[in-house]
Design brief:
With 218 residues, the chain is of the alpha/beta class. It contains seven helices and 14 strands. The strands form three sheets. It has a six-stranded mixed beta sheet, covered by helices on one side. The radius of gyration is 16 Å and the shape is globular.
Length: 218
């Protein structure tokens, strides 16, 4: 499985194109604006067809091109139901953004939740629910590839914002400790923004969420 890292859109949100050339199949994790122009040549180069679009959460910068991806490439869209309103009626985000962006909603084909297993690219991905940044934030974990695509829950030495509607620092902290820090230390964490990291590095060096369960934020 190849992991293509594709920062795209107005704030360089990362979409991850996962390709498996021997099967001619691909999955896209998140769909920031402008991602279609980046994935089309990669799909042709790898001889792959995009089968699924997995949304880590419903914030506009991760879903801006989702409707186009589904319409033009026929991908099945998967997401967590807690973010249904954000994904299918994204104009509600414009109210707190203070800007009109002409966001287009997309119909979700398959709702995923904690503990679900998705089979794609000849391997199994585990779904873990990691709310706190956004109610429906999920991660997709491939144990055999030691890779976790976490959306905006956790960054390299950082965490996602919790001051947006539906966010909570307490919930986010519990999610990170319970759903991300319980993955093997060698697991590579692929976040929605910025460089990759590992579970082990964040457990020992993240200034926002320490591994010690006695940690409390101010």
């Amino acid at each position: 499985m190849k992991i293509h890292v594709l920062p795209s859109g107005p704030i360089q949100t990362i979409g991850y194109l996962l390709t498996e050339a021997r099967l001619g199949a691909a999955v896209l994790v998140d769909a920031p604006g402008g991602i279609v122009e980046k994935i089309l040549p990669l799909l042709a180069q790898e001889g792959c067809t995009l089968q699924e679009l997995w949304l880590t959460h419903g914030h506009w910068d991760h879903t801006q091109a989702a409707a186009r991806v589904k319409r033009e490439l026929g991908a099945r869209v998967c997401a967590h139901r807690a973010d249904q309103a954000l994904i299918e009626t994204p104009e509600i985000m414009e109210e707190f953004m203070g800007a009109r962006m002409g966001l287009e909603g997309v119909k979700v084909d398959h709702w995923v939740g904690q503990g679900d297993r998705l089979t794609a690219l000849g391997r199994e991905f585990e779904v873990r629910h990691v709310p706190g940044h956004c109610p429906g934030n999920v991660l997709f974990y491939a144990a055999d590839a030691a890779a976790a695509f976490v959306g905006d829950a956790l960054f390299n030495r950082g965490v996602g914002r919790w001051d947006l509607p539906g966010g909570s620092l307490d919930v986010l902290t519990k999610s990170i400790r319970g759903q991300i820090y319980t993955l093997p230390d060698a697991t590579v964490v692929f976040p929605g923004h910025g460089p990759r990291t590992t579970v082990g590095e964040e457990k020992t060096g993240n200034p926002y969420v320490a591994m010690d369960s006695s940690y409390h934020s101010a």
